[in-house]
Amino acid sequence: MKILLVFDFDNTIIDDNSDTWIIQCAPEKKLPIELQNSYKKGFWTEFMGRVFKYLGDRGVREDEMKRAVTSMPFTLGMVELLNFIRRNKDKFDCIIISDSNSVFIDWVLEATSFHDVFDKVFTNPAAFDSNGHLTVENYHAHSCNRCPKNLCKNVVLVEFVDKQLQQGIDYTRIVYIGDGGNDVCPVTFLKKNDVAMPRKGYTLQKTLSRMSQNLEPMESSVIVWSSGVEIISYLQFLINE
C-alpha cells in the first residue's frame, strides 16, 4: 500500500521557470517585443515553440541550452526531499506532471541523477529537429475549460491512478506538491484522505486560501510548505502513522 507523490516541476522541484530561464540564451538575454507580445492566454506551448525557433534561428545550439537549463537552482530542501524519497521508494510512487517539456526535465534529472526517483514524467514532448531547433508539442487534447489547451493535470492524474488500479496498485493517499495556477484543477479533485501541498506565497496557495475564505468545498487537507525539508517531516509523519 503506497502513497502517490505528485510533483510539479517549475518553481517546485526547481526554483525558477525553465521556459523563462532559457531566455538568457537569447541575444542580449531578451526576446524581441513582437515575439513577447505573441503570447495568447492558454497557448503557452505554442508561444514556447516560437521562442525555441527564434533561439535556433539566432544560432543557439543544444549544448548551450543544456548548460543554461542544468544551471537552474533546485528549490530549498528539494535535493534532501528527493534523496529521502529514494531511500523510501518501497513506500512511495512518484510522478511529475509539468507544463515544461520532456527535454528540459530529462536534462535536469540526468544532470542531478534523480531519474530513478520518478516512476513517470508527464509533460509536453520535445525534441531537436534536423536543423538543431528544439520543437515542442502539446501533451494532449482535453475538454477541461479551467486548464491551458495543452495540458489538464487532473485528466493526467486520474488516468494514471485508474491505470495503476487496473494493475492492482491502489494508493492509500495522494500527496500533490505544486505551486502554480495549473495545479489548482487537480488539487480541487483530491479526496478526503489526500493532501494538497502548495508552495507558500505562490499562485496555488493564494488560490486555495481564497477558495477557503469563500467557503468553496475542498475534500483534501492543505499543508503549505517553503522548503523540501518541511515536506520530509510531513511524509515521515505519514509513513509512521
Q: Which descriptors apply to this entry?
A:
241 residues; alpha/beta; 8 strands; metal ion binding; hydrolase; HAD_sf
- Tally of contiguous helical segments: 10
Average pLDDT over all residues: 96
Rg, please? 18 Å
Beta-strand content bin: 15-25%
Biggest sheet architecture = 6 strands, parallel
Which sequence of SSEs, written as H and E, runs from N to C?
EHHHHHEHEEEHEHEHEH
Helix percentage range: 25-40%
Total E-strand runs: 8
Uncertain spans? none
Distance between the terminal alpha carbons, to the nearest Å? 13 Å
Helix/strand-derived class?
alpha/beta
Strand order of the largest sheet: 3-2-1-6-7-8
- Tell me, what's the shape? globular
GO molecular function: metal ion binding; phosphatase activity
Pfam families: Put_Phosphatase (PF06888)
Binding site for substrate: 19, 99
Keywords: Hydrolase, Magnesium, Metal-binding
Describe the structure.
It is a single chain. The protein is α/β, with parallel strands linked by helices and 241 residues long. It has 10 helices and 8 strands. Helices cover 39% and strands 16% of the residues. The protein has a 6-stranded parallel sheet with strand order 3-2-1-6-7-8. A two-stranded antiparallel sheet has the order 4-5. Helix 5 packs parallel to helix 10. The longest helix has 14 residues. GO terms for molecular function: metal ion binding; phosphatase activity. It comes from Canis lupus dingo (dingo). This is Phosphatase, orphan 2.
